Amino acid sequence: MKCKILHESRGRIRVHLMCNHMTLHDADILEYYMRNIDGVTSVKVYDRTQDAIIIYKTERKNIIRALAKFSFKAKEAIELVPEHTSRQLHRDFEDRLIFTTVSHIATKLFLPVPIRTALTLFRSIKYIRKGLKALLSRKLSVSVLDATAVSVSIIRGDFSTASSVMFMLNLGEILEDWTHKKSVADLASTMSLNVDKVWLKTDTCEVLVPIGDIQAGDKIVVRTGNMIPLDGKVVSGETTVNQSSMTGESLPVVKTVGSYVYAGTVAEEGECVICVDKASGSGKYDRIVRMIEESEKLKSVAEDKASSLADKLVPYMLGGTILTYLLTRNVTKAMAVLMVDFSCALKLAMPIAVLSAMRESNDYNISVKGGRFLEAVANANTVVFDKTGTLTYATPKVAEIVTFGNHTENEMLRLAACLEEHYPHSMANAVVDEAKKRGLSHEEYHSEVKYVVAHGISSAVNNKKVIIGSYHFVFEDEGCSIPEGDEEKFHSLSPEYSHLYLCISGELAAVICIYDPLRSEAKDAIAALHKCGISKVVMMTGDNKKTAKAVAKIVGVDEYYAEVLPEDKADFIRSEKAKGRKVIMIGDGVNDSPALSEADAGIAINTGAAIAKEIADITIASENLFEIVTLRKLSEALMARIHRNYRFIVSFNLMLIILGVSGVILPTTSALFHNMSTLGISLKSMTNLLEEKDFEEE
After folding, report:
1. What tens digit of pLDDT does each residue of 424-433 get?
2. CA–CA separation, 438 vs 427, rounded Å?
């Protein structure tokens, strides 16, 4: 693509693309193409001017080379663009705002009075109809107040004021609609599927293949904790599916042969084979958007309070108008009360503040499923961490493999990897990665694989039962034994490692020792949480007590619990809530799911199990635990903004009412100031809550 360099400085270049026309989709293609170039940190593309601003930390020639190779028709560039972007959304609302403002000004400047009057009467029908509908439903809502203000202005012959009031109300509706849809779109994008490979069932075995290779009619295997990647029908097996993201159902649904399953839902327990119906998973994004828009989770307590208070104030505003007229016999002073109401600002500013905070959280790689969870984080005083994959890195390593009997290291590692690859978890991934590193292929030569939550995996190889999992599962539940003469080797296993026990036919065959290094920022992040007002930080793990004690001492938690089961975590959270404490749970695995759903706010690591992300209220990126600190600061800043909004709305509008009733300002001036303040506070509520300095690591 031919480009002209318009301006450049160190690490920044502005170019003009020499093309006849650039569509919104073309702009997206260029933006995502350049974002994918190594060293590019930021890209902004302006379709109207056909310009692009690129900020980079690489050599200038790499940027020039990438631009020269670029083509709007290149398949590899087009594939980088996600199914939905926000560019079209921004343009639609931008055009609506401009058209509404320009048409209002043009009407006042150029149209004669009779035509302006007719237009005002026509536009008032919408507001009057809403008000009458509310009255017929026996509701004194904000729409009644709006209709009354417009109607009284028209009855008095003050068509200019009526037009201005409707203009401001229209602007407010557009801004609220845009902010809501933008936040929902951002949230839906973060909830979109992130499944790269699936298990394809063939006539002879199961093969791990890219999801793009799957066609309608293919059969795929889904097991406990896995996300269902494609729409289809169950042809064998049985599983319980959490489909709250699609239907809003709180309880998992049993799926048997003949049942239909949807992309984006999660298998909580069991396994099944699905005949794929829609290879593209079409409709997934739109279903998520619909679910979010309809979900009560978007409503925070502060929003509910504002909405309720707004409607409760309407009778008082109408009563104040009538009382003022009865006392003063002055229509102008009575109108001063009617023209200024608290309701409009309360109903507009609070939801915008919450939705904007949700949008801002996405900028920090934090996906929040509803405003009430930000409120819960702001009010929390207890944080519970899972250890593996949360306080530790999500990519643990195999430290050593200790074999028993006559088994060899490589053969046992191959067998362990063959079982573990079916259930992606940080420790399972470590086993699979070690097998790859050693060049060990592990074809499917076992029978059906069964997963026992928080315990381990059971299967059969050559008609011999094979299990791998925790000490409790292997020795207490399954009653496995240590080969005779290997007791000393077993008892000398290093306590600093986490252990996976592999048994064949009831006898210990190998122990895979896994080293799960602590996150470098874990200690500082927990200290920062304490500084943010979290009085109790707890660590819970299924590891042995020695490992748990050592980790707890290093990271500085207030309490720790070792060798816990999933129900133990959930029970602890219930007990904390019974004491009146607000609890955040942070985890990444299938075994964390009960606790995540029990907490006031459940936070999942985005590299964790699908079921954990599905159940969690908030998802954070795995790179840095300080995102939890950022989330806390953002939540507290949101609540502070909401409280400031309350104080400003009440005090400013009360001042306008007093000035209007006392005759200092006219009703039209009161209406102007009221609408300007409502618009101003709404625009302020759309701005970011945090500055760069607010979330730097301390």
Report:
1. 666 788 888 8
2. 17
Question: What token pair was written down for 649?
Answer: 């709305």
CB 119 within 8 Å of CB 111: yes
On whether the pTM is more than 0.70, the answer is no
Which structure tokens are listed for 109?
A: 């400047």
Regarding whether 582 and 455 lie in a shared domain, the answer is no
Provide the H-helix boundaries in 386-532.
409-420, 426-437, 471, 487-491, 522-531
Answer whether residue 635 is part of any domain: no
Domain assignment present for residue 285? The answer is no
Range of the domain at 36: 3-81
Q: Tell me the C-alpha distance between 227 and 284, whole Å.
A: 13
CATH number, domain of 229, equals: 2.70.150.10
Q: Are residues 168 and 304 in the same domain?
A: yes
Q: What does the pLDDT look like over 594-645, one tens digit per residue? A: 888 889 999 988 766 666 676 788 888 766 889 899 999 999 999 999 889 8
Q: Of 385, 381, 437, which is closest to residue 579 (Cα–Cα)?
A: 381
Rg (CA), the chain: 31
Nearest-CA neighbor of 453 among 367, 557, 369, 570? 570
Domain tally for the chain? 5
Spell out the long-range contacts of 399-402 with Cβ–Cβ below 8 A and sequence spacing 24 or more: 399/494, 399/497, 399/513, 399/514, 399/515, 400/497, 400/513, 401/510, 401/511, 401/512, 401/513, 402/489, 402/493, 402/510, 402/511, 402/513
